[in-house]
Amino acid sequence: MKKQNYIIFLLFMLILASPHQAAASQPDWLPARYSDNMVIPKGKEVPFAFECKGKKKATIIFKGETYQTTLKNGWFIGIIPKQNSYGGPFEITFTADDSSQTIKNVWVGEVLFFSGQSNMEFPCKNLKPKLAVLPKTQKHISFFNVQTQGEQSKWVTPNATNIPELSALAYLSAIELSQNMNIPLGVITSAVGGSRIEEWLAPEFENHKDLLHPQSLDHINKGQKAKLLYTTNSTFLNKYIYDLSFISADANAEEAYADLVQHQRIVEKKFPTIRYLFKITKSKNKFRVSSRCTSKMGIPYIRSTNTFERTRNYPFNILVWYQGEANANDLKDAQSYRFLLDNFIKGTQLSNKDYTPVLLIQLPEYIIPENHQNTWAYIREAQANTAASNPNVRLVPALGTGNKDNVHPPDKRELARRVAAQLEQTLTNKPSVTPQLSNVVPINGTLRLIFTNTYKGLKSSDSIISGFSITDSSGKEILVKAKLINKRTVDIALPVPPKEVRYAWGNYPKFSLYNSKNIPVPAFRLIAQ
Questions:
Q1: What digits encode the pLDDT tens for the residues 112-128?
Q2: Do the beta carbons of residue 414 and residue 364 sit within 8 Å?
Q3: Which pLDDT value is given to residue 34?
Q4: Domains in the chain, please, with CATH?
Q5: In terms of Cα–Cα distance, which of 523, 525, 524, 449 is closest to 487?
Q6: Model's pTM, two decimal places?
Q7: Which of 356, 278, 280 is closest to 314 using CA atoms?
Q8: Host H or E run for residue 468
Q9: CB proximity list for 341: less than 8 A, separation 6 or greater
């Protein structure tokens, strides 16, 4: 996966374009993201911010209603209230004193934010087999791709010219969802190849201090050399700024400082978007060592080019998140992913001001060269556990869509079908489409596993159920037999008391269980108490 020097995460908070980049159909004071084909999220207040130099009063006119704006530091800020029904096409007229501009073909629909790393970024032009015929949609669909640098995007409707550059997973999922539900859709994509989850975190999530230096606090605080005093100062200009300070007695300050610098240089190489600055000061008989972390990480706000006063949230209805490969490089990384993912979800929902539904795409199968630590299995486990513990998070398993030799599987159709099915269930407030382990019952040398969301029942893609194993007290893995008892129940044989029970465990595991909607049972692991 490719690396980029600047990673911009806008949990659907779109960067404002500079005036000279606006299209001819717009005034030079209207940001590019307010363009024809725009989709307003149903059920959400939608803030607007635009700069009109020299103007004193501005309004926003939508569906015959006029909404006033407030002027702050040269920017007019207004809100269109919640729209509780689908509809369109509409127009939005922006006025500023004696000038005005109207954007057309505006719809009220579901705004879906697709984000993550390179498998989400993967464009339609790289699909294999290629798209032979462009699918027809039932209702309006618009796409907006957040640019990490350069000229900003506008809302576009899919056509033969722009489809090759669209995210394949986002495009195929949206097309299928549109055909199934016949509702207007706005699709936002913001994905960066090779990005780690640390680079997408919002500043507001809990326990932020523990993530300032991934894997590191023990290192910089070993031997209780230093008392750590945490602050989380942030700026919303063009970067994050975090401060980590600690005070140490004279005898230990120099060594503690050296440890801090050494560690952060290591982290700096691992996260190319992060840079550290160091400062050590002495006050009486104590030293204060300060570390400032600056990053081009994305933030969950619409960021202007130079001032926070110009920024306001733009809401969305559902986040589809496909990431984790870059955090599976070593075992310690993979085992700490759950904590990072939980806080990423918290930051996402906080930035969107509600409990926004999140769909987590569980990693597919893949053989990692020279990696025998099952790191992808631990990432999948973290994704499954996060979904199981949060009622607003749903899992989309990708098992069966992977490629043992290619971290970027070139066919996204089956995964898109699963994403679309889960989106439909979520939008219609129906149960998850993904089967989930709900109960475990020991019975005379067997372990009975009971699943929910099986619909018409579980089935095996093989003549025998494969993918189950246990570990004994020594940690040795033993393959075990499994039997389908009824539509919801599987019994597995226990030749010895298990330390762990595993299903589809490993980087490139065996698996065979599906529900009647052809959604695979996600990988999981049970640890004996």
A1: 999 999 999 999 999 99
A2: no
A3: 87
A4: 19-198+300-427 (3.40.50.1110), 207-295 (3.30.70), 436-527 (2.60.40)
A5: 449
A6: 0.78
A7: 356
A8: strand 468-471
A9: 197, 360, 382, 383, 386
